[in-house]
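This part of the workshop introduces the protein records we will be handling. Getting from the letters to the C-alpha cells is the skill we practise here. The record below serves as our worked example for the rest of this section.

…
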Amino acid sequence: MQQKTKQYDVAAYIWPSYHHEPRVENFWPEKDGEWYTVRRGTPRFPGHDMPRIPLLGYQDEADPKVMRQHVELAMAHGVNVFIVDWYWYLNAPCFERQLNEGLIPALKGTDCKFYLMWANHDVNDLWNMHVDTYWHKPTQAIWSGQVNRAELEPMFDRIIEKYLTLDSYYRINGKPVFSIFDYANLVTGLGGVAPTCDAFNWMRQRCMAHGLPGLDIQAIAKSGAGVEAGAKLEAGSEQQTARDLAFDSATAYQYCQDCGEIGDYPVWANNAISRWQGYENTYGAYYPHASIGWDNTHRNPSFSDHCVVKNATPDAFEACLWRAKAWLDARPNQAPLVTINSWNEWTEGSYLLPDMRWGYGYLRAVKNVFGGR
C-alpha cells in the first residue's frame, strides 16, 4: 500500500503595497502602490540583479481576479498559507484593500488560508525612495506602531470580527494564529511585560467569547528582540522576557534580522538557520523560516552593495527549504508550518512570484521540497 504523502503548511508573507493606498500617496504618486519604486530600480554595481521585472506584470493586488491567479499559482507549487503584513496607525488600518478586496475573495472555494502578522513597527521614510532611510542620520518617525490598552482593545475586537472567525483564517489546534512583528514595541506601548501579559490573556478570552478555542500568539523571533524589550523595561534576559510573555509559538520574518544586510547567501542563510535551536529553547514551538534573499537598494538612492546579499539563487533557497523540512519532520507533534519571506517583497529582493531573471525558479524550489497541491 502506498503511504500517503505528508502535508505541510507552507506560508509566504505578503507585503500588501501593490495597490493604491491613499495614506502613502505622497511616496507613490502614480497610484499603483510601491510598483512606483520597483519600476525605478537600477543596478548599483557590476552584476547587480536590477531591475526586478515581474513576469506577470505590474498587477493591482487589490483585484480579486489577480489574487485568484496568485492563489492558484501558490497552491500549484506547494504554498497554501499567506501571512499578511497588517498595519494599524493613528487608530486606523493601512494597506487593507489588498486583503479585504483582493485576497479574501480570492480564497473562496479553495483550501488556501491566511493569517495576520501585525507589523507594529514605527514608520519613518522607509517607503520613500527619494530619502536615504538607514544611512547618514536617523529619520523622524511619521507614525508610531505603539498602542496603549485603550487603543488595543477596539483594534483587536475588530480583528476578531473581521478576520479571525473566517473559515479561511489559518488555525493551529483550532486556534487562530496572530503574529506580532515587534513585541518590544508592543510592550513599550502597553507599559511593561506584566501589562502585556494581561493584554494577551484578554485577547485570548475575547477569542473564546466569540466561540473560538483561544488564540495562538506568535512571536517574530530576531536577534535581540527579547533583550530589547527587557532592556527597555528592565525585565531581564531575552529568554525570561519571552517566557514571561508566554507566546504560543515563534517564527522569523527575514534572515537579515539575524544576520545583517550583506553577505554571501549560503553563509548568510546558514548563520540564520543556526539560531533555530536557540529560538526553540526560548519560545517553545519554533516554526522554521526561509528567506529568498535581501536587496534594499530600491528604496535608498545612495546605497550600493552595502545592503545586498549576493549569490542568492533558487538552488540555494531550496537548500534552506530542505533544512526546514528536516526540522519539521523531527518534530511530528507540532504543526507542520514553515514560513517564507516572501510572496512579493519586490523592493527587498525576496519574492516567490516569477520574474524575468529566474522565471518560476523559486516557486519550483518550494514544489521540489514540499510538493504541489
